[in-house]
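User: Here's a protein and a ligand (IDC). What would the complex look like?
Assistant: Let me lay out the input and then the predicted complex.
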Amino acid sequence: MNTSGKGMSVRALSIIGITCFIVCVLLIGCTRDSDTRLAVDKDGKTVVERYGRLQVIGTNLCNEAGQPVQLRGMSSHALHWYGKYANATVLKWLRDDWNAQLWRAAMYVTEGGYMTGRAVKFKMIDSIEAAIENGMYVLVDWHVHRDRNPNIYKKEAIEFFTEIAQQYHSYPNIIYEICNEPNGDDVSWSGEIKLYAEDVIAAIRQYDSKNIIVVGTPSWSQHVDEAALDPITAQTNIMYTLHFYAGSHGKELMARAETAMDKGLALFVTEWGTTLNSGDQFYPDKVMPWLSFMKKHNISWANWSVNNKGEDSGILKYNADKEGKGNWKESDLSPSGIFLRKILRNEIKVR
Ligand code: IDC
């Protein structure tokens, strides 16, 4: 009798033990999710309040405590065309309804941007102020694109970043992105981009010794492997830009990214699209492997982009939210917008 009673209790104990173990695993899983994937947590703390000053350790972006983090959020379209969304109301909407932790403010250098209209700088300032107000991180993007070689406007870039660093160095929200997409066969990493980067980084570091600086890489930020052969070693908290458009880029680019990480580079996908690199057509199925890849490697990202131009990569339908007020209904969103919102809200699971 006694023995069988003992047998029962051992069995009962082991069932209780296993159940506790499963519950603990689930709880740890959920805690990890709520810690790493919420713009605002259940206690009302914003991501910047929780993570503080970011730092690069090895190939990882880490919080102030040294734990790897993955930031996820949205990019603006060109601030001089669609700067109406660069305000605290839209960012709050992106934070609270979309669960976005990050805003990328894309300030084009040419194509009607900074070089021909310095007033666009105030859209950048609005973005930074809105991000600070909402406890979000903000990528301050010097959007080299058609101008190809960042050295052409290096003097202006140095002036611009010096001013931003002087004004905002005390805010952990700021992430400097010093050249979006250098491109062209004559614009190599060691011959052009690295030299530009070293000068701009030195200018920023005069005032801001800590905040992360992300450096563009050759061929529209698709050759992180070339930067990995000759990285910037004089400074810390440096990351490298990787860009992809899911309809155009797949395994080959992921392999290049892995090569770079194996060599010790920390990567940041400051821009990616659900479309072809032209911005057309929508490829949700081709996005999923990329999202898994970025989750696996803890690579932070911003999706292109918040606009109502009617392009497939834009999250708003043509002419929706003409004034930049946020408060979007599902009927305001493009297919890409509906998809992105679900990804950010963790309603589509990324494995
Ligand atoms: C595109 C915009 C488009 C605009 C064009 C101007 O989506 O509306 O007319 O710029 O040059 C990038 C660039 C980004 C591009 C985007 C899509 O960083 O500026 O935006 N893209 O083509 N790199 C790869 C794709």
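Summary: The chain has two domains: 1-35, 50-344.
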